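Convert to structure. Protein one:
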Amino acid sequence: LESRKKNAIGANVTGYLNQECHEKLVLCAHYDTKPNTPGVIDNGAGVAALLLLVKLLKQQGMRLGLEAIAFNGEDYYSIPGETAYIEQSKDEFSRIKMAINMDAIGYKNNIDAVSYYACEKDTIAKIEQIRNGSDGVGRMQQWPQSDHSIFAYFHIPTLAFASIALDEVFSFSHTPHDNMEALNLDTMVDTIMFIKEICQSF
């Protein structure tokens, strides 16, 4: 096996709403992928959802502040985007009411689902009540392989959204098969509307 290290420059892309608010929600999705794959499920769909959520929340309003982050480097060794974010923003972590990550959403063969990290029971109950009133979003076990883990590590209440068929997604992610044929827009919209309702509930 021949390998080499190549220096490169990357960046996280961050936007804000209601910056005057002390407490804020964080919405995030990584925008990088591997070579030779379209990266639709991992993670073009997550980035598209992030952009639409920011647009909807700006139009319709929310009570807390919002930090929207498109992370770079999630699919690469040493997760440089997450590391840079921690270095730059850790003094602000006390302001984060909740972090919500979107990765591998919208897969055509099943519904998306939410998993919970560092959340109090009453927070989970509140979100589960919203979920039970919405269509097409399930609940799944915790999984560590994405940007939500950095928030959970710092004991920030965190939600992660992904396809409930995550093992199946892992079987074709980072390959040419991760293309538009794998995407179900209706599934993606169900997830976006659920997350919007969560954001507006705080």
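Protein two, convert as well:
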Amino acid sequence: RTSQAAALATVSGSADRQNEGSGEVQVRTLTTTNIGVTVVQTVVAGLVIGTTARGVRGGIEHSDTRTTVDVDAGAMVSAWDVRFGLTARNLRQPEFESGSGMVKMHRQLRVGAALVPRALPAGVHGPFTFAIDADLTTTPDVASGDRRTVAAGGEYWFAKGLVGGRAGVRWSTLGDSRRAFSGGVTLRLPRSVHGEGQVTKAT
């Protein structure tokens, strides 16, 4: 279930007004419910692609809902200890009726890279991971301004792979940076059980 703020213009025109396009701008929420099926395929060694077909039901508050289909896709390339990825959401850019026009779910593209050396005793978890990813497209946000987000973070495993610590930061490259910091700890317990805790602080 996702929500997106949308700006809707309400025009109160009159015969003596020169600008018929001006008027009150209201902010309403587009809420969608998604059910998807994902298919992942290894194309060649080191290249994996995936696609998710989603049934999307949603609408603007106080307006009729509709059901449509959308598609997400992604790809990851692995070479030695480095991975590169690309994701794409809302490829069909579904639209929903607001009563005063159509509201579109904009296409979103994001690219990332990670350094992921793996060695015993941390195994598949470490000893460490460093990753950075960034939006290639701008995400409209009428509530707090358009954003294009970049995020970076790392993880390190201690005590022979029993304890993992991580930290990260994200910010927008447009307008107000809206920077946020996060940190977390994972404790690996017997029988493949993990205990986790994390905190995020926005500035």
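The mean pLDDT is 85. The chain is about 0% helix and 65% strand.
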